[in-house]
Amino acid sequence: MLKKVLIANRGECALSIFRTARELGIKTTIVYSKEDEDQAVVYLADEAICIGDRFPKDTYLNINALITAALSSGCDSVHPGYGFLSESYEFAKAVEDAGLVFIGPKSDLIRKMSDKIEAKKIMKEAEVPIADGIEINDKNLKDIKKIAEEIGYPVLLKARNGGGGKGMRRVDSSKNLMDLIELTKSEAKSSFGSSEIFIEKLIERPRHIEVQILSDGKNAIHLFERECSIQRNNQKIIEEAPCNFISDDLKNRLYDASIKCVKATNYKGAGTVEYLVDQNENFYFMEMNTRLQVEHAVTEMITGVDIIKEQFRIASGLGLSINQEDVKIDGHAMEVRVNAVDTYENFRPSAGEITFFLEPGGMDTRFESSIYKGINVPIYYDSMIGKIIVKDRTRLSAIKKMRRAIEETVIEGIETNLGFCYAILFDFDFIRGNIHTNFINNKETVLIERMREVVDYE
Question: ATP-grasp domain spans which residues (predicted)?
Answer without folding.
Answer: 120-316
